[in-house]
Amino acid sequence: MRQAGRSLPEYRAARVGTAMLDACLDPALASEITLQPVRRHDVDAAIFFSDIVVPLKLAGVDVEIKPGVGPVMGSAVRTADDVARLRDLGPLTPEALQPVSDGVALTVDALGATPLIGFAGAPFTLAAYLVEGGPSRDHLAARTLMHADPATWTALTQWAADVTGAFLRAQVLAGASATQLFDSWAGSLSLADYTAHVAPASARALTHVADLDVKKVHFGTGTSELLVAMRDVGADVVGVDYRLPLDEANRRLGGTTPLQGNIDPALLAAPWPVLEAHVRDVVARGSVAPGHVVNLGHGVPPETDPTVLTRVAQLVHEI
Ligand code: 1CP
Question: What is the reported pTM?
Fold first, then answer.
């Protein structure tokens, strides 16, 4: 889950002197960083080291990842003309995606029997960065645009769907055996707005891998009211953050959908008995669903003691 590797000293050492997006586009380095948490924690799968804005960069968008901040755009995308300029960049081609394909192929080779999860950002979360120009709290500008100028919003999210879909497809074709679509900021939307203005673009992103034999996880935060709608865009597994217990998530989804989650990252810093009781409760509640991919409900805080993560993985394997 989210930027998990940041808590590792070996990650920080590997990154010295290399900007985040340059690290993502260096196949050998991206592969090495992907393997680090697998070696250390003995988890059952790896998630490819990259970022949701990598396909934007490869498509020609002026974007960088500022340390301690996150993705920042050279200029915000707010008007019909801004969106037209994005569309003029043309489709994201397999040639442009070659560094990603190479990084995935190297990683899959090194992982052997351990599966690799490929991922991409959902169109709304990408649009939230593009329209705001960087990280924001309530994604106000993006939510305004979808109502103020629905045609421009649709053009923007369709473009984002195709770019992010191409990124996802490249990872699967290079050997990733599952995919995850991150709509991290969808929790700022009402169900009505999600359904009308966001779901069609997320469904479009997933059509890029529809012909490939790969399971699709769909994850957001603050999305307790959106779980059914998020499944219905074409997901096989629904990620649940830490706000809703998994037995209740399973009830809302009608008992038919495997779940992922939902250990609260805040408890990683709590005394071990508190964390252990929480992990056991999450696993017990998750056992009522047709399947449960045990994971955090959101990101590993960068200051997390890595030995705690190893211990959580051990505990889950014991259970
Ligand atoms: O654990 C891993 O390293 C896996 C690779 C990974 C993934 C799956 C990274 C590397 N980023 C992501 C996804 C991602 N990126 C999401 C979706 C998941 C989530 O909700 O966190 C989002 C929203 C981003 C955008 C992003 N990139 C942020 C969040 C900013 C905000 O708005 O709050 C940040 C801080 C980044 C930078 C980033 N991406 C990845 C890493 C390791 C880092 C930190 C860079 C560093 O080491 O300084």
Answer: 0.97
